[in-house]
């Protein structure tokens, strides 16, 4: 009988307890005690086994309850502590990674081809280098760019040193040499700040002695005079000389050659010619003309030429003219995206894109910054600077770049890159890269986005565009078109060795200088391997060993020479920074070939065929940059006067017009 009853009793006890809990609140005290006694009696009636089972069951429930309580408590603690760690990491991120551009991502299939010129350090090493450069940089925009305490201390020291330098005010003399303050003629504007002085005292002492003009420089002066004679006689006040037909060519109708050549005459010491040209600027140059000009070309040649002549001569006439043209160019920025139109009518103030597209060229919209920024600094009118810096910021933020390499076109409506997938350091992109570095230098080496963008781009060049030719293993910069490499190099790309050398001089890593040396050798060979000793506009390199083939090949459509400056420009930088005379000798060889094949009685002329020494076919055109750039760089290359346009005080715009490097106020 026992076996059945306890089970029933057990349920009875449970039910009773349950009933109590539901109705206990209404029960009187006696009823409660009666129930307790009843329960106790029932409990006593149970066998020991039944009681043990019941006790074990409750004990088991208790243990389970305790375990799940501990688990829940642990889980809660773990959740809380993970959140705060995540929070800490999130808070740490901005400290660890200050706003920098994304690192190059793709591995390069061709890296193995260039062991000696590949980056010696990773991109992080550039970031490390950046920190050092930030320390050296002068003050400005402090609000926008917080620095750590160590950096601040070092910057204060730098400030002190710079202030001490401020007393050493200098003026640039005829031939561009630094002279004592009291020898200057007219003071530049009050807003102008002195160029930064970095040369050692010993260097300055040595360089302050007048350095006589050497035979090679005299040859450059003779070449200039010959060209100028033709210009004066047949094209005075017009844009370009036609030296064969003794006539002129009009592009903007603004005396382009004359303005482009002003600072060259100053640097070459051609005082008489300079004064004549200045008189024309004063009395004849009128920008109030109903004429369409190209924003980029008129900025680099006219605005740049006027600004640098103002700095060298200190004559406010040139600043007034610079302000005038600067204002007249501003409507170009009135576009939906603020990326400027290519053309603007400087008389009516109406700007427009070319007739066939609403695109502008990337190099054009990003190579007007040095000039407009300098105009703002001199005038105090920030509209110029703001307009061009907005363009840089916008381009900086755009997608469509390939490891820092940019496409060639940008749409003025959408502000986006167009014709994606083609990357070159030649036409339509070239000076974008040049101005990244040069703006950084102009602004006192503190605009780090520009430097980051430049370093990324050079890494992109190494990764995607460098190859070696056969049989001489010349390092060259080719092009990438939709993933396919083309062994094509424009002569325009020969600006790159000079720019790389300038970057290395300003503290970038030594591999930039190594690449500069390799590339200038190639640019020289682009002259040396050609029948006239003059480079064609475009060359193709052989990249596969083939018997009897040279490194360089030329297509018939590319065999012209426009008297371009880029190789001479780079030879100048390489000579300045290395002192290796071979660069002067290479330049001398090229000058002689210009004299042999491009000089005509009326001046110098572009030629159609660099491969035909018996008939190079002169084109009847002398470009303004022959006087503005090519002959100026020849003269500077042959000079041993390191103070002649000191590269720690001046930065050349892309048309060879030197503008001062800013220093902290
Ligand atoms: C010049 O007008 C400038 O150097 C520009 O950057 C490129 N083209 C010519 C010279 O070749």
Overall shape: elongated
Compute the average pLDDT: 80
In total, the number of strands is 22
Strand residues, percent: 5-15%
Question: Mind summarizing the main beta sheet?
Answer: 3 strands, antiparallel
State the distance separating the first and last CA atoms: 109 Å
**Spans of 5+ residues with little confidence (pLDDT < 50)?**
1-29, 70-207
Descriptive report:
The structure is a single chain. The protein has 665 residues and is mostly helical. It has a domain at 215-660: Glycosyltransferase, CATH 1.50.10. Helices cover 51% and strands 9% of the residues. The chain is built from 21 helices and 22 strands. The chain has a 3-stranded antiparallel β-sheet. The protein has a 3-stranded antiparallel β-sheet with strand order 8-9-10. α8 (256-268) packs antiparallel against α9 (271-283), α8 (256-268) packs parallel to α10 (295-313) and α10 packs antiparallel against α11 (316-329). The protein is elongated and about 140 Å long. Mean pLDDT is 80; it is low at 1-29 and 70-207. One of its GO terms (cellular component) is cytoplasmic vesicle.
Task: Spell out the key features of this protein.
three-stranded antiparallel sheet; mainly alpha; 21 helices; Glycosyltransferase; disordered N terminus; binds 1-deoxymannojirimycin; 665 residues; elongated
Write a concise synopsis of the structure shown.
The chain has 665 residues and is mainly α. The protein has a domain at 215-660: Glycosyltransferase. Mean pLDDT is 80; it is low at 1-29 and 70-207.
Give a topology summary.
Layout: H1 4-23, H2 29-45, H3 48-96, H4 123-136, H5 149-166, E1 171-172, E2 178-179, H6 201-208, H7 215-234, E3 240-242, E4 247-249, H8 256-268, H9 271-283, E5 292-294, H10 295-313, H11 316-329, E6 343-345, E7 351-352, E8 359-361, H12 362-365, H13 369-379, H14 383-397, E9 409-411, E10 417-418, E11 422-423, H15 430-442, H16 448-465, E12 466-468, E13 475-477, E14 479-481, E15 484-486, E16 488-490, H17 496-505, H18 510-528, E17 538-541, E18 552-553, H19 566-578, H20 582-597, E19 599-600, E20 603-604, H21 624-638, E21 650-652, E22 658-660
Antiparallel strand pairs: 1-2, 3-4, 5-6, 6-7, 8-9, 9-10, 11-14, 12-13, 14-15, 16-17, 17-18, 19-20, 21-22
The protein binds 1-deoxymannojirimycin.
1-deoxymannojirimycin binds at residues 431, 492, 564-565, 625, 629, 654-655.
């Amino acid at each position: 009988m026992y076996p059945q009853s306890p089970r029933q009793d057990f349920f009875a006890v449970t039910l009773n307890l349950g009933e109590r809990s539901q109705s206990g609140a209404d029960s009187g005290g006696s009823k409660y005690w009666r129930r307790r006694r009843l329960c106790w009696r029932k409990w006593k009636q149970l066998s020991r086994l039944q009681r043990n089972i019941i006790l074990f069951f409750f004990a088991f429930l208790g243990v389970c309850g305790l375990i799940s309580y501990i688990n829940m408590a642990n889980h809660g603690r773990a959740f809380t502590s993970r959140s705060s760690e995540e929070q800490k990491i999130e808070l740490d991120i901005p400290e660890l990674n200050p706003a920098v551009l994304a690192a190059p991502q793709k591995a390069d299939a061709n890296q193995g081809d260039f062991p000696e010129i590949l980056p010696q350090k990773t991109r992080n090493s550039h970031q490390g280098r950046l920190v050092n450069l930030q320390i050296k940089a002068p003050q400005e925009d402090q609000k926008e760019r917080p620095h750590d305490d160590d950096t601040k201390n070092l910057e204060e020291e730098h400030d002190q040193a710079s202030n001490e330098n401020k007393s050493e005010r200098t003026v640039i003399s005829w031939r561009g040499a630094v002279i004592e303050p009291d020898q200057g003629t007219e003071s530049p504007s009050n807003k102008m700040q002195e160029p930064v002085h970095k040369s050692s005292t010993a260097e300055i002492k040595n360089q302050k002695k007048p350095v006589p003009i050497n035979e090679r420089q005299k040859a450059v002066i003779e070449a200039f005079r010959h060209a100028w004679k033709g210009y004066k006689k047949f094209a005075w006040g017009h844009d370009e000389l036609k030296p064969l037909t003794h006539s002129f060519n009009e592009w903007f109708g603004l005396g382009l050659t004359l303005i482009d050549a002003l600072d060259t005459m100053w640097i070459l010491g051609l005082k008489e010619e300079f004064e004549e040209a200045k008189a024309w600027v004063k009395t004849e140059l009128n920008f109030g003309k109903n004429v369409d000009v190209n924003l980029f070309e008129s900025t680099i040649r006219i605005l740049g030429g006027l600004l640098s002549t103002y700095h060298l001569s200190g004559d406010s006439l040139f600043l007034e003219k610079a302000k005038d043209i600067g204002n007249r160019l501003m409507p170009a920025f009135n576009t939906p995206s603020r990326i400027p139109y290519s053309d603007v009518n400087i008389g009516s103030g109406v700007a427009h894109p070319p007739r066939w597209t609403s695109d502008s060229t990337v190099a054009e919209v990003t190579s007007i910054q040095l000039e407009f920024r300098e105009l703002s600094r001199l005038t105090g009118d920030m509209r110029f600077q703001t307009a061009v810096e907005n363009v840089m910021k916008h381009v900086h933020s755009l997608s469509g770049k390939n490891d820092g390499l940019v496409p060639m076109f940008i749409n003025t409506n959408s502000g986006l890159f167009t014709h994606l997938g083609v990357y070159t350091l030649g036409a339509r992109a070239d000076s974008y890269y040049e101005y990244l570095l040069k703006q950084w230098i102009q602004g006192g080496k503190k605009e780090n986005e520009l430097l980051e963008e430049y370093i990324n781009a050079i890494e992109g060049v190494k990764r995607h565009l460098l190859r070696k030719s056969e049989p001489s293993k010349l390092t060259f910069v080719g092009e990438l078109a939709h993933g396919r490499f083309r062994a094509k190099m424009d002569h325009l790309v020969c600006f790159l060795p000079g720019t790389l050398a300038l970057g290395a001089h300003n503290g970038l890593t030594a591999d930039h200088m190594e690449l500069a040396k390799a590339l200038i050798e190639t640019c020289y060979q682009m002259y040396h391997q050609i029948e006239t000793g003059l480079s064609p506009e475009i060359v193709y390199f052989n990249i596969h060993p083939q018997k009897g083939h040279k490194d360089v090949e030329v297509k018939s459509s590319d065999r012209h020479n426009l008297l371009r400056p880029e190789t001479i420009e780079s030879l100048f930088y390489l000579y300045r920074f290395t002192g290796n005379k071979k660069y002067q000798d290479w330049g001398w060889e090229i000058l002689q070939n210009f004299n042999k094949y491009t000089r005509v009685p009326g001046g110098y002329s572009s030629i159609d065929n660099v491969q035909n020494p018996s008939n190079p076919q002169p084109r009847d055109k002398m470009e303004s940059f022959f006087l503005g750039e090519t002959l100026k760089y020849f003269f500077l290359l042959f000079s041993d006067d390191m103070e002649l346009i000191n590269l720690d005080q001046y930065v050349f715009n892309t048309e060879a017009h030197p503008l001062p490097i800013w220093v902290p106020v």
